[in-house]
């Protein structure tokens, strides 16, 4: 075979003196980098993706994975990946795929925003001594309430409240379907969501029977492929989400090849074994906002108006107007997935060049809904590149009711953001269906790590609230006055509704 | 409760008096009480609101307006003339006071929105809404004009100076009201400006406030969604507008509104009986953006009563007392005892629990 002229990205190296020939690296690598050569481990470094599974499982610390020092001649215009992608495309004629969110150095506005703190005139609050509340309800809120006085003078609610999702903290897990991730990964999310009092989202792959016990912590998704959708499914969780788009691949659909559809996935998705699972780019019954309205209300009818309906869209240029239309079409929640959002598989060209970052989109949507006086009509979930509690706090201050975590949740399961999820070989057992790989991911064990992460972020969020002198998350939500921009131009500040630092 | 009368030097001082039987008393009392708390102010702002002071014009909206220069007055009056029947207009009577060298031009007008559609720009609005719109318009669009108060049979008197100076300047002893509130100010976050002194008012709501609202950013954006224009350089106006929105526009009673503004904690709500739990949960969901977070004690006056309340963890002081048909609320007990030496009852309201006093029916109108 013609040897690839695409220079390998990484060099896997084994220190032959330290190596005890235990062959664990051979077992652990999902990409078959290692093989047994009779007396030592052989390395095919072209296959290495630097997921670091071998590094962590080598008992002798004999393995190092280096970035390949051999690059093309340096050129300010023709970067390494530009040249490499051309070579790969010349070899295959295909569209290079990738996984995870964009790794291109577009500006991350979260890193240009700083949060306020109290000094003297308004006391800060110590979250270790005083209650600090993170509870959040997602769903449509009436503009006002009516009460009637009953005996004893206590108010009794007259207004009928629309259905809500109750979250103990303003975090949810982003939709990741069974198929794109393993069942064990989904179980990990479900166990953690239940323990934490938050929700996970099935993604578009249907609901596996093993996840049913967690139904009070699940949002079920309806996407263009309509996999696994039936009345039971719609009623199985606490809410239904219509997926229009995804930040990593706005405007395009998905394709899970038939080889990746074994019996279990086929059953969950309600398709024959071995058939391609194709999610068309648009939903074929939604070609306008009126169509979306019909689907929203079809789902509300099917669920007897007991579940909030969320609509997930990718952040694109006109996102504010689109979101306003979605709210007016009857959605209870608008889920905005930013440009940097993750994916199991997307063409590089789409992931890296289409859409806009969540900071801009979120600021624009929250402001537009307020201008139109309909902000209460729907909750906003911000997603796509939330890397830390700081990002989450800033997103909430910009106007999000809650943030969705995809990649950060997977990182607790071992993911190193190597970006090769689309290969289906994830050595950590996350984005793969190969049984020998998925068994590695013990849901009970990894759920604990995920729970730890969310607890840690909740504590951090409480510290931030305390420093801000407030003791409820709703006092941070949309409070852009508590953000300041550093190194941002006037127009960007204006768009974000944030003052520059020092003012 | 603590009976040591030590001073805590911070923030602001406030005092409120209400005679439930509608008996009118002179502004001299409240001034005396407020002056005891001079430590709580720094001379950069003091003010009073009084209810029942204009019985002869009780059917007219009384506009107290300050002007930085005569041009603003001309513009404002032109607008008023076009839209209102002006029953009477006059300078607000003042007396020379040593500490107050310069002051804005101060006028008051007793007016009624004109009923004829042609003259009134947005005739479909009820009178109250139209007045609110007028106040927003003058404050935000006419440079150098600012409405101190706009309610019926009430008025706000405020400015830059110590409480006694402001009281003498406005000759408050000559007024008689059944509710009085007063405020001395230690501004830190906003410059001393006559319009920036408390009380803040809208229609017959008046607010005096000790504290800082850490949730100002979202409270402001929430109000803006309902068309309120927050033009002032202080966060207290949000309190005024939140009351206006919740009580006048949304029809909540004062106690429910206070509960939304200083909401109970979830851990307490979770233990409530079903109906109350549902009511409180909905209140927090719907009015989360109205939750006032941060340290405050607030007195909220209106033509039929007075409400005093604290933030949800009581980061600022508030003491209440009763004597006969009179109820007092103040930052310090000593301020109450200064004008009522032996109250029947004195207590410190708990965090977030409002003290609601209403006039006896038919009184004070
Ligand atoms: S895991 Fe480490 S010690 Fe074991 S065979 Fe591989 S390199 Fe050698
Ligand atoms: S999920 Fe697996 S394949 Fe995907 S980025 Fe993480 S480690 Fe790599």
Walk me through the structure.
- The complex is a heterodimer of chains A (503) and B (365).
- Chain A contains 15 helices and 23 strands.
- Chain A has 503 residues and is α/β, with parallel strands linked by helices.
- In chain A, the strands form 8 sheets. Chain A has an 8-stranded parallel β-sheet.
- Chain A is globular and about 85 Å long.
- In chain B, 28% of the residues lie in helices and 27% in strands.
- Chain B has helices spanning 27-35, 70-83, 127-141, 163-169, 216-225, 236-249, 254-261, 266-269, 274-286, 333-339, and strands spanning 13-19, 25-26, 46-51, 61-67, 84-91, 105-113, 145-149, 154-159, 176-177, 179-184, 200-202, 205-211, 296-302, 305-310, 319-323, 326-330, 345-347, 355-358.
- Chain B is built from 10 helices and 18 strands.
- Chains A and B meet through strand 9 of A and helix 5 and helix 9 of B.
- Residues 51, 99-100, 410, 415-421, 426, 428, 430-431 of chain A line the site of one iron/sulfur cluster (SF4).
Instruction: Please identify the top-level CATH class of chain B.
Output: Alpha Beta
The biggest sheet of chain A amounts to: 8 strands, parallel
Query: How many DSSP helices of chain A?
Result: 15
Give me the CATH architecture of the largest domain in chain A, please. Alpha-Beta Barrel
Shape of chain B: globular
| Spans where pLDDT lies below 50 across 5 or more residues of chain B | 1-10
What oligomerization state is this entry in? Answer: heterodimer
Low-confidence stretches of chain A: none
Query: How many individual domains of chain A?
Result: 2
Q: Quote the distance from N terminus to C terminus of chain B.
A: 36 Å
Largest sheet of chain B: 7 strands, antiparallel
Going by CATH, the homologous superfamily of the largest domain in chain A would be Aldolase class I
Mean pLDDT of chain B: 88
Keywords:
heterodimer; A: 503 residues; Alpha-Beta Plaits; TIM Barrel; 2 domains; eight-stranded parallel sheet; 15 helices; B: 365 residues; alpha+beta; Glutamine Phosphoribosylpyrophosphate, subunit 1, domain 1; seven-stranded antiparallel sheet; five-stranded antiparallel sheet; 10 helices; 28% helix; binds iron/sulfur cluster
